[in-house]
TrEMBL record:
Record-linked InterPro entries: Beta-grasp_dom_sf, Mopterin_synth/thiamin_S_b, Sulfur_Carrier/Prot_Modifier, ThiS/MoaD-like
Signal sequence extent: none
Gene3D superfamilies from the UniProt entry: 3.10.20.30
Name of the protein in its database record: MoaD/ThiS family protein
Pfam families tied to this protein: ThiS
Amino acid sequence: MAIEVRIPTILRTYTDGQKAVEGTGATVGELFADLESRHAGIKDRLVDGGELRRFVNVYLNDEDVRFLDGISTQLSDGDSVTILPAVAGGSLPVGMR
């Protein structure tokens, strides 16, 4: 079962600069384990204590897996998984400082 995984720039050091890689697994968790077997260190950046890290967003075919079954979300052949780091910060508008 082939799953396309889109990798954000910050994690491409683990994938030799590749923007997308293929993986396999029946669930998101199994997919991450498969990625780890070929891209050592990437899983620790995505999962902590068996759950997604707080500042990592994972989308299955444009659906946030947190609103599905988290890392237990089921995958199917041909699915697309996108990993996005959460973005925070910025500044207040001038009138609100």
